[in-house]
């Protein structure tokens, strides 16, 4: 048997060993098949669960007006867009959505323009690589160094965006802690690079805490850097009108690149980047994930437009007020002795258990009780910090939260005593 024929067998053999090792560590993953619409009560694999794990923070994924908007658009525009945005797939709903999203950030980014992506992951890959390519924007000049400063807890899509940029451009990466910004300032102060980019989540997805965007922007201004904020978990939730963390912190600067996700609080799918129109024009020309991807269905764009109307209007304000009431109730009434409830002003309310096998066991106990809060394990979170990532929705009631509190406290007492 030649080496070419041996390769698939060897690959499968190694995969089997790797999968077994993941299973032994309690790190293997599997699908749960949803058999009903996204909601706070949902069917998975034939069983009904009360869910506290969705990112549908405002309960818009199954909102009747959003559904109706999508249905009407399907009749007019069909199912698929048929091509990438730059061929023939960019339809009127996509253009309207880009302008509407720009309006959301117009008070925070002067001369703002928006570019839509099919997912938040693609947005980070596309924007980071495009911005880093500014260092070799003309063939006449040699490639220049881009210094990237990335927060340690940033989402995997940011990490991968930086990795990809490093393949195509000359990049120097520095990891910083948001709790120790003096070290970041010291690094910026001694940095002689022409191109500098600070990258940070607006809300850290596994902890729920807000990053100090105001202080990061101050550093970006003082040390001539761009600041990219991925506000996936803040858009729709933070700010009086749900515009996100820039509205929440009342910030405004041409140095900002703001990435928002539409598959979380907006309840639909996709993502976008808002920035100064010249920077967006550059990303438009240079972002391979944007250029070479089929445009998302126009029906999703129309559904998102309706979702944005709700977010910005009275119903959105009421939903955010109810969310804050739920968060306060959870934090006030949950009393734990050994597990650690991270304090967050967002719908993300993690319970850190620590030991991965124990966290998996608690996950299974909750499922047996008809409650779905999947265990979050390494490498998604650091070793020793496995957790139940509780997420609240505006569709939950105070009674839902009280019932969950009672179950969590009972399980903690059970596992500590055993």
Distance between the termini: 55 Å
The name CATH uses for the topology of the largest domain is: Aspartate Aminotransferase, domain 2
Helicity, in percent? 40-55%
Order of helices and strands: HEEHHHEHEHEHEHEHEEHHHHEEHEEEH
CATH architecture level-2 label of the largest domain: 3-Layer(aba) Sandwich
CATH class of the largest domain: Alpha Beta
Mean pLDDT: 94
Describe this protein with a few key phrases.
Aspartate Aminotransferase, domain 1; Aspartate Aminotransferase, domain 2; alpha/beta; 17% strand; 14 strands; 418 residues; seven-stranded mixed beta sheet; single chain; 15 helices
Question: What is the structure about, briefly put?
Answer:
The protein is α/β, with parallel strands linked by helices.
How would you characterize this protein structure?
This protein is α/β, with parallel strands linked by helices. Helices cover 45% and strands 17% of the residues. The chain has a 7-stranded mixed beta sheet, with helices on both faces. Helix 2 packs antiparallel against helix 12. The N and C termini lie far apart (55 Å).
């Amino acid at each position: 048997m030649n080496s070419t024929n041996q390769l698939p067998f060897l690959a499968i053999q190694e995969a089997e060993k790797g999968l077994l090792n993941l299973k032994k560590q309690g790190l293997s993953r599997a699908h749960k098949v949803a058999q009903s619409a996204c909601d706070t009560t949902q069917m998975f694999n034939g069983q009904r669960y009360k869910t506290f794990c969705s990112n549908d923070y405002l309960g818009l994924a199954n909102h009747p007006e959003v559904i109706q908007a999508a249905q009407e658009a399907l009749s007019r525009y069909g199912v698929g867009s048929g091509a990438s945005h730059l061929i023939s797939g960019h339809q009127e709903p996509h253009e309207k959505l880009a302008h509407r999203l720009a309006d959301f950030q117009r008070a925070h980014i002067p001369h703002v323009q928006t570019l839509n992506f099919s997912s938040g992951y693609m947005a980070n890959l596309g924007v980071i690589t495009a911005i880093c390519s500014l260092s070799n924007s003309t063939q006449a000049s040699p490639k220049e160094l881009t210094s990237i400063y990335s927060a340690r807890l940033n989402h995997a899509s940011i990490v991968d965006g930086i990795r990809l940029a490093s393949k195509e451009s000359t990049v120097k990466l520095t990891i910083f802690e948001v709790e120790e910004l003096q070290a970041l300032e010291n690094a910026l102060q001694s940095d002689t690079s022409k191109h500098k980019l600070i990258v940070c989540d607006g809300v850290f997805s596994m902890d729920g805490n807000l990053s100090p965007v105001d202080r990061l922007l101050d550093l970006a201004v003082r040390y001539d850097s761009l600041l990219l904020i991925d506000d996936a978990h803040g858009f729709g939730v933070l700010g009086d009108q749900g515009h996100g963390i820039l509205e929440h912190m009342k910030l405004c600067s041409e140095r900002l690149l703001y990435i928002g996700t539409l598959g979380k609080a907006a309840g639909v799918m996709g993502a976008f980047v808002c920035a100064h129109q010249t920077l967006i024009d550059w990303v438009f020309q240079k972002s391979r994930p944007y250029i070479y991807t089929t445009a998302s269905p126009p029906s999703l764009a129309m559904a998102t437009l309706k979702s944005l109307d709700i977010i910005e209007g009275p119903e959105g304000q009421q939903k955010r007020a109810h969310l804050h009431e739920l968060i306060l109730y959870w934090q006030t009434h949950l009393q734990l002795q050994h597990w650690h409830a991270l304090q967050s002003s967002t719908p993300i309310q993690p319970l850190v258990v620590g030991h991965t096998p124990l966290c998996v066991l608690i996950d299974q106990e909750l499922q047996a009780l008809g409650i779905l809060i999947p265990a979050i394990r390494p490498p998604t979170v650091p070793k020793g910090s496995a957790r139940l990532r509780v997420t609240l929705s505006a569709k939950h009631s105070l009674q839902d939260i009280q019932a969950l509190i009672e179950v969590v406290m009972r399980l903690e007492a059970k596992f500590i005593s055993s």
